[in-house]
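We modelled the chain as a single entity of 168 amino acids. Its sequence is:
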Amino acid sequence: MSLSMYHASIPVFTRQLNNLSTILGIAAAYAEEKKVEQSVFLNARLAPDMFPLCRQVQIACDGAKAGAALLAEVAAPSHADDETTFAELQVRIAQTLSFLASLSAAQIDGSEARTVTLKRRDKETHFEGQVFLLDHVLPNFYFHLTTAYAILRHNGVPVGKRDFLGTR
């Protein structure tokens, strides 16, 4: 049995964004318990030239919704990127999950051979749908999820591999 484009994307995004939501909940509780301002965590970075936690979460959400939208040939919702609290990031994740839930298998399946055009500021890149999902969207999505997790872990938040995987 082959794996459909829908099942290789939407359930993966949904599970991992729910896991990220759980991790952010743990971080918010930890910040409250330790009397640390949320901004300390939200602005934390692994390296000076990397984005902070808040931006990592925004990009993970954007990657999931934009990737899915391009595969489904629909417009992705836009967000202002103005979140400054864990609660606001939770809303961002919930909105992304809601958009993903609105997409059907019929909209995404069959996109594996379709040309997907990724428009950036200075250029357009054309992909075959399956290559776009497997070689671009998913690795980028996991990069930002992992970086968000690593920022929190590095800053003492008591999360582990089971939290990342959602198996706790």
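As a brief sanity check on the tokenised model: The mean pLDDT is 96. Residues 5-159 form a domain with the Four Helix Bundle (Hemerythrin (Met), subunit A) fold (CATH 1.20.120.450).
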